[in-house]
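Need a sequence for this fold. Nothing fancy.
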């Protein structure tokens, strides 16, 4: 039996209230793992889409990329992890009076920092291992295409894409809580995540992997020439310039469009 929406709201409210008692060192460790898990999904997305469009076209390549990217959230939900974007749902516990907003903000800052550490760890390992040179350098070309496009997005576009992204990510977490079995949780995650990836929305934690990897790969002139894209924005300023609006958008998408909306619908005292 799956949970009904009102039951999901109660379940998630209790879950996030429970997070307030977890030691910050444990939260930080779980956040590092979550950042790494999202990065695994991001790197698999890069590898799969490096040549998929040549066989199935742009649209289906995006869907396939989204399917494989879903492994990140699946690992987090089933294996354990603290993901900044998913923790936008913390808001429902605060609005219900079961957790303090200061505890939520403390969690967000700790988890965001841990996600960044985990993502950068994967960047270093992927770059050091040289696997980005696979398929005759096509994987590296895809890295540059993705990362350069992200730093070229305007502030407002990045903000809006961040809202849309985390609306779907938090819905994936929400739906996963409706299921009582592993298969149900996986299926609940796959479709919303595949949708946001295929539609080109922006995920702050994924970008903590994509852009730094692009910065490192852009140091090879031959790969840059093969990619045929401008890499002038692939630097620290470009990285931060993308993360700020995307992060704000992710907060709005999860905290307002999912957590606050469902709190109002199912938990607000009449």
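Here you go.
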């Amino acid at each position: 039996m799956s949970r009904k929406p009102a039951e999901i709201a109660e379940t998630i409210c209790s879950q996030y209230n429970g997070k307030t008692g977890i030691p910050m060192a444990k939260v930080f460790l779980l956040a590092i793992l979550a950042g790494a898990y999202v990065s695994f999904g991001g790197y698999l997305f890069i590898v799969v889409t490096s040549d998929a469009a040549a066989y199935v076209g742009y649209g289906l390549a995006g869907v396939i990329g989204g399917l494989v990217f879903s492994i990140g959230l699946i690992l987090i939900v089933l294996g354990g992890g603290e993901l900044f974007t998913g923790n936008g749902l913390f808001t429902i516990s605060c609005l219900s009076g079961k957790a303090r907003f200061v505890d939520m903000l403390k969690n967000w800052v700790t988890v965001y920092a841990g996600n960044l550490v985990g993502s950068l760890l994967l960047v270093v390992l992927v770059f050091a291992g040289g696997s980005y040179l696979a398929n005759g350098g096509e994987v590296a070309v895809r890295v540059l295409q993705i990362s350069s496009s992200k730093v070229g997005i305007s502030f407002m576009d990045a903000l809006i894409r961040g809202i849309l992204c985390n609306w779907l990510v938090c819905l994936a977490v929400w739906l996963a809580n409706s299921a009582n079995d592993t298969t149900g949780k996986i299926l609940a995650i796959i479709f919303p995540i595949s949708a946001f990836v295929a539609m080109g929305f922006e995920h702050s934690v994924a970008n903590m992997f994509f852009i730094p990897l692009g910065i490192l790969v852009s140091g090879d002139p031959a790969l840059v020439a093969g990619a045929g894209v401008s890499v002038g924005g692939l630097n620290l300023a470009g990285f931060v310039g993308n993360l700020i609006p995307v992060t704000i958008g992710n907060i709005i998408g999860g905290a307002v469009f999912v957590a606050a909306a469902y709190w109002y619908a199912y938990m607000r005292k009449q």
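For context: Residues 236-267 form the longest helix (32 residues).
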